Amino acid sequence: MKIKDIKAIEILDSRGNPTVRTFLTLDDESVGVASVPSGASTGSHEAVELRDHDQKRYGGAGVLTAVNNVNQQIKTALMNQTADPKTVDETMIKLDGTDNKSGLGANAILSVSQALIRAISVSRKIPLWKFINEYYFSEKPFFPKIMFNVVNGGKHANWNFDIQEFIVIPQYQLPSESIKVGSEIHHSIQKSLKSKKLSVLVGDEGGLSPALSNNEEAFQLIIESASQIGYENAKQYKLAIDGAASEFFKAGKYILKKDNKEISGEELIKYYLEIEKKYLVYSFEDVFQEDDWDNWTKFKSQLNQNNLVVGDDLFCTNTKRMILGFEKKAANATIIKPNQIGTIYETIEAIKLAKKYGWAVAVSHRSGETEDPFIADLAYASSADFLKTGAPCRSDRLSKYNRLIEIENKL
């Protein structure tokens, strides 16, 4: 099979911001389509998402430069080339010629990388997950547990909480059962908020964003709401947080706006250990600034080894950062986001390295999402431990969860 045509267009993501969608056609007329998401609380070590900065269009957020890079430079380089994902990704990396994809844009490159894989699966008349699994992995695929972001805070919800995400992880392996539990808890939280005459508006990722008086009220809200419908914390589900701490770190201090505190890393460690004990929080993601290695290492050494210390902005799906994190014993789990690194090949390399280290793997969405369910197939194909793609609310999140249900039903 060879690549016959590549065409990118500018579309809108779940926040109404421009992003890239690419159509890739093979010489047997099979077409693969891929759309690229966009983050809000982005790590400084991420691959570059190319924006136009033309203030006359979308306030400077347009992506016509990235679109044109697909339609001109990338298309020229790949036309009539053999449709081999690893070779194509390596060709685009070389064509870009930078360490951070700033030449062509990670959004441009990833759109082609994903579209090719989907086009091949269409050509072979097999599910997307099956091609990914057979091409990149030797192990049998299995379903990830699901991380539902049921309460939004931080940059995703106008700083109603300092902690960006309050997460529930149903302890069931079948997606249909986990999704049922996640949805029921989400609706029970809504019901609790309505009874208290509090807002049931949602944040960027579909999680509820009520104006509670402090961070800990969010834990209490989730636990009480789940209990009302028969689900017990640390039994039917586990609690997790995404601190996105780089967003509230300034001049060596952590500024907790909601609690009106300015604290040190040592004090933040103490706070996390307290909420772990008090609310049985199982997983701690991005709980320190992305280069605050000392506090990452200290926290991991003090936390129960059965709990997860998860790097997102810390690693940015970048194997170089992951190697450093392993050496420093800074984490035991990693978030995987394809658009942080820019190609599926490099994404897979990060997954494989995490597995080599014995780390938990959580394939994740971005706050600015599209209806493309690619990461659901990726999570299943790679036997990831978790899939994290927001609340059981809004079609840009549900498309991923519904895709897992399709796979479960062999569709």
How would you portray this structure in words?
This protein is α/β, with parallel strands linked by helices and 411 residues long. It folds into 2 domains: 3-125, 2-Layer Sandwich (Enolase-like, domain 1); 145-408, Alpha-Beta Barrel (TIM Barrel), CATH 3.20.20. The protein is built from 13 helices and 14 strands. It has helices at residues 64-78, 85-96, 106-123, 128-136, 175-195, 215-228, 265-279, 293-302, 319-327, 338-341, 344-357, 374-381, 395-408, and strands spanning 3-12, 18-26, 31-35, 145-152, 165-170, 237-242, 249-250, 253-256, 261-263, 281-285, 308-311, 333-336, 360-364, 386-388. It starts with a strand and ends with a helix.
Write the layout of secondary structure elements.
Elements: E1 3-12, E2 18-26, E3 31-35, H1 64-78, H2 85-96, H3 106-123, H4 128-136, E4 145-152, E5 165-170, H5 175-195, H6 215-228, E6 237-242, E7 249-250, E8 253-256, E9 261-263, H7 265-279, E10 281-285, H8 293-302, E11 308-311, H9 319-327, E12 333-336, H10 338-341, H11 344-357, E13 360-364, H12 374-381, E14 386-388, H13 395-408
Parallel strand pairs: 4-14, 6-10, 10-11, 11-12, 12-13, 13-14
Antiparallel strand pairs: 1-2, 2-3, 4-5, 5-6, 7-8, 8-9
Helix pairs in contact: 1-2, 1-3, 2-3, 3-4, 4-12, 5-6, 7-8, 12-13
